[in-house]
Amino acid sequence: TQQTVKDLYTHLDQLTGTVELTGWVRTIRSSKRVGFIELNDGSSLANAQIVMTSEMANYEELTKLPLSATIQVVGELVATPKAQQPFEIQATAITQVGGSDNDYPLQKKKHSYEYLRTIAHLRPRTNTFYAVFKIRSLAAFAVHQYLQDHDFTYVNTPIITSSDSEGAGEMFQVTTLDMNHLPLDDQGQVDESQDFFKEKTNLTVSGQLPVEAFALAFRNVYTFGPTFRAENSHTSRHASEFWMIEPEMAFADLTDVMAMAEGLLKGVIAYLFDHAQPELAFLNEHVDPELIDRLQLTLDEDFARVPYTKAVELLQAAPVDFKVPVEWGTDLQAEHERYLTEEVYHQPIFLTDYPKEIKAFYMRNNDDGKTVAAADLLVPQIGELIGGSQREERFEQLQQKIKDFGLSEEEYQWYLELRKYGETKEAGFGIGFERLVMYVTGMSNIRDVIPYPRTPGNAEF
Length: 461
Ligand code: 4AD
Ligand code: MG
Fold this sequence. Notes:
The chain is of the alpha+beta class. 30% of the residues lie in helices and 23% in strands. The longest helix has 23 residues, at 127-149.
């Protein structure tokens, strides 16, 4: 009758007598007559404290166990209400079932995040990364649950694609051609018809356009999958491979986008408050002392909705010098976003109605002729967490925008057909899942919320 450490914590009041656990030695300290092992078995962030005594035949050997050795413990569960841990296990027998080595890289001291990134295969064994990746898993489930509860259908859009959903050209090419012997056509250009798919293909930057087609059949849909961007951004919030959630709604406008995005973010936080209490408490204590307060505030307050034009005015009137000054028509920099969320509003805000030139071609033109019906959610610490918009559903306007953006009408023919056959008001948004995980864990570098991060110059493991 094997138990897990989690079982013991969950059913402490019902458990008495003999228990049996298998796990890894996290810490060990001993004197001549008594020793203590912190045992972790992966079932929870918390360890079980194992007490061993020199009465055990193999006591000497046990005191020399290297960190991360695998052991099986049989012992008596004893409640210790006055101690730091609610119980301990007084071992009657401890058997080593797997070895480790004294040069185990995770010795008992605080390691820097930079160092831990170089051992991405071992860092999930630390408390911090255990908490982060547990929350990552729970947050993914919470996203699915919230959207499914709101009648959204999950759609899997392709990872290899021949179109550029964002029209921004930041794509990783997918090819089976031999770079050293590229086939050339009559004009001396690479002959893509000889490639695997007989045309140029790339990794998807977004599932939005393909999922829009499903919104026009299922009404409310979403994607949740990996996306790839070959943007050479060396920042703490850009990854080359990241996961995105893209809800898309037929018969919806920009107001609906903001309501759904706000509801989803709050729904995820509420779920984590219910299901990730130990992990949040740990991160609040060791990583970001404002984490829980910030999440509670996010849950309690209504997010402000601020037109871009007003944001620019606020920034221009700011009593601080920005490295990059703001002019109407320019994209906001991270320092501007930080000022708005951390100095002015102290909470997540939706910035709406951006100049059309700095936003994607598919966004719906506003009547002013200058702006589009876009809404980005900016959050403290991170900046842009969500990008959304009402889509341009009017055939002629969309056709014109494809032209104005210098995109190929042929490539977007199928997309235009969505407007030709059943023109429908439609809107949606995309959440960067890693940025969401950063927000709900307090981690400040995107490399520390992805199991094996990919960033410019790094595809290790
Ligand atoms: O603002 P973006 O580029 O919007 C889209 O891709 C739309 N198709 C979404 C939609 O309307 N369906 O990206 C959406 C979000 C950003 O707000 C950000 O959180 C995240 O994706 N994101 C990144 N996250 C990590 N690394 C990167 N390089 C990211 N680029 C965007
Ligand atoms: Mg964006």
